[in-house]
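Before relying on records like the one below, remember that each one covers exactly one chain. Contacts with other chains, cofactors or solvent are not represented anywhere in the record.
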Amino acid sequence: MSAINTAYKPYAPDAAANCLNGTPSQTMAHNVQPRGTLNFASAETARVRWYEAAIAAYDERERRFRSLHEEEEMLRMRRPLTPEQAYARFGLLLGTLPPAAIFARALYTVGHGLDADSLILIAFCLAMNLLCALVGRRMGQRLGQKTFADAHASWPVLSLKSMWAALLWGLATGAVGGAVCFGFGAIPGALCALAVALPAFLMFAPLHHWLARGGMIDARHFWPVACGVTLTIATLILRLG
């Protein structure tokens, strides 16, 4: 009698071989790893990613806050505003109140009558004021996002950034608002906007930097400062002459 063949059958799925007769290495596809190896690799990958996220969060905290007390003050804010939001609102105020004071002064100088010419002039002033407000808000939003996003800028650097922001804001807002007057009003509009924007940004940017915590400023601190700066400039315009 021949001896019993105890060797395992080779794994042959095309021959419908019995998988129970094969060893784990024979019954497993070549491109599949063991389950234990997969679990170990996924756990190690998750741990490495957790450490990377923790290090990134620590670096971000060190970049934004100068001390733990500053971080606590930022967390206690009721309505925090990012630099983008704060400068967008400031640009809206600056594009509304001082131009309105300029137009009111010009209309008062021209005369008090309400004839057809005065109504046309008032319509032009309202259109220019609306454009100045919209463009001023948009420019303030972009400047807050690009120029004033650094919470640790030194005072000399902040002054240079303020003058650069005033230049960009004044040229864009004044030119677009003045272009309503048949295009040739863009140059006088840009000059008037520059005269308004330069002192406004030089006053507002240091105050915002001083009151901000981690780049965020509370709305209850922002509105008095922003309204105070813009109303001061508007009042000075009305009192000229």
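Strands lie at 80-81, 217-218.
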